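Before the break, one more example. Copy the sequence into your notebook; we will annotate it together after we see the structure.
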Amino acid sequence: MRLKILFFLMIIPFLVKGIDFETSGYVKYLFSGAKLPFIQKRLNDHLLHARLNTRWYVTSDLSFSLETRWRTYYGQSVEDIPDFKERITHDYEFSDLGWELIKKNRLFSFAEIDRLYLDYQAPKWQITLGRQRIAWGTSLVWNIIDLFNPMSILDFDYEERPGSDAVRFQYFTGSLSRIEFAYQPAPSNNKQIFALLWATHYGEYDLFFLAGMKHHRKTAGFAWTGYIKDAGFRGEFRVSDPLSEGPQTPAPLPELPSLTNDKRISVQGVLSFDYSFPNSFYVHSELLYNRNGRTRNAGFYQLQAAKADMLTPAKWSLFQEFAYDFHPLVRGDVFVFYNPDDRSGLIAPSVSWSVFTNVDLYLIGFVIRGKSSSEFGAMGNAGFLRLKYSF
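Here is what the structure looks like once it is written out:
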């Protein structure tokens, strides 16, 4: 039944005259090889990933967007990783717009709608209703004021990020300023999110002020983006009610304390600098402080930290990136995550090549260092090769 609904939504523009219609998307093939600590053998997998974005302009002010993605996995991870489906899908509170197409031995195919919204724009205001991407924050790695969909730089194959089933209202008070309200309902108060954002401009800086509630915890934040001479300078700061006032989750191991027992005010902060030299050499540094983070056994807290609205289970995190264009069509990059408390880290060298018009080749590796109980030591080494055609 849901597949019939999806098919009907996609053919509406061809049935109704007078509607402007545009499409875009891509088809990707991704090969991955990984060696995980909790699985003895190497996992080799193949992923065919297709995306179709459609937008229908009903009038000059009103548009409707539908974006779908299809993923077909074939390989050892489908069989050997526990809860494989739960690890690759996003849980939406109200509407299950995902379809399991095939699940047989090493083959798993899944389709979903991750954007489905109406957007109305007036001269001074804009309202968006439905499954949409609400992207707040200024930092390039850790977006601590992004209450709805904070990104992960390691999830490189999902550029769009998950959406939110929400209503968003923006009132533009000037060319560089606005007041924004967003609300994501949920059956349980512990899972609702609502927030007010004020964006303004002063001198060379864009400033953002945030207040709201996420998972039954009040929160407030501040962010900025600007320049120190020619270098980009960004930052975010956020305080929230103690984790003990939010949803409770069990400790990862009986002998370890639970993050949600912490009764201290939650404090998080990020500083970010980046600079591009005239010869295309690029440098990017970030520092994250997380008051509720762990200095020991951070690797065991990955899942609980994510549920507790923490972008990392660590107290301190460092990020460093270098990139250079070897050719107008070839770019090399390497970034490093480092936890100074448990001395674990991740090194990710990569190279991208624009092979033809709309065809790109991308190679990236994850090299892990650290004890199995450390933040990165439990992740395992991996390598990826991706071929992408965009249209």
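Helices lie at 2-15, 76-80, 84-88, 302-307. The two ends are 29 Å apart (CA to CA). Try to locate both features in your own notes.
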